[in-house]
């Protein structure tokens, strides 16, 4: 069985997600590093959700809506991060959940 290009891309995103998550939670004193990895995690979340939603046929509207709904976790995480103005574990976890939701959606909805 040959690996599809989307599956290979998902595998690369999962690897990037793992590395990003490690550095997002690694306790360094530098807030800039945390901010960079937080926004990288948000970008990965958007990318994986986009891939998951657009890989579905257009007639599966309900599944497409369910796939896009995963970004709600990231949106709440961004709001929490902006409200506190500093590194926040809850915001980090919400962005992680959004990415995991998108990854799971790709494998379960397709």
Beta-strand portion reads under 5%
The helix-and-strand class reads: mainly alpha
Please give the number of β-strands: 0
Give the uncertain stretches in residue-range form.
none
Calculate the terminal CA-CA distance, rounded to whole Å.
Answer: 17 Å
What is the mean predicted local confidence, pLDDT?
Answer: 87
**Could you spell the SSE succession in H and E letters?**
HHHHH
Q: Approximately how much helix is present in the residues?
A: over 70%
Question: Which tags fit this structure?
Answer:
mainly alpha, 5 helices, 0% strand, flat
Concise summary:
With about 110 residues, the chain is mainly alpha-helical. It has five helices and no strands.
Would you kindly provide a written description of the structure presented here, covering whatever features stand out?
The protein has 110 residues and is mainly alpha-helical. It is 81% helix and 0% strand. The model has no long low-confidence stretch (mean pLDDT 87).
Secondary-structure topology with pairs:
Elements: H1 5-25, H2 31-54, H3 61-69, H4 71-84, H5 89-109
């Amino acid at each position: 069985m040959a690996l599809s290009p989307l599956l290979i891309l998902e595998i690369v995103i999962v690897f990037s997600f793992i590395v990003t998550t490690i550095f997002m939670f690694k306790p360094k004193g530098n807030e800039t590093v945390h901010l960079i990895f937080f926004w990288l995690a948000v970008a990965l979340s958007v990318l994986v959700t986009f891939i998951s939603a657009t890989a579905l046929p257009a007639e599966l509207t309900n599944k497409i809506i369910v796939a896009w709904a995963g970004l709600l976790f990231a949106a709440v995480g961004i709001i929490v991060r902006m409200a506190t103005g500093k590194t926040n574990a809850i915001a980090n976890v919400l962005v992680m959940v959004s990415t995991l939701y998108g990854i799971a959606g790709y494998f379960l909805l397709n």
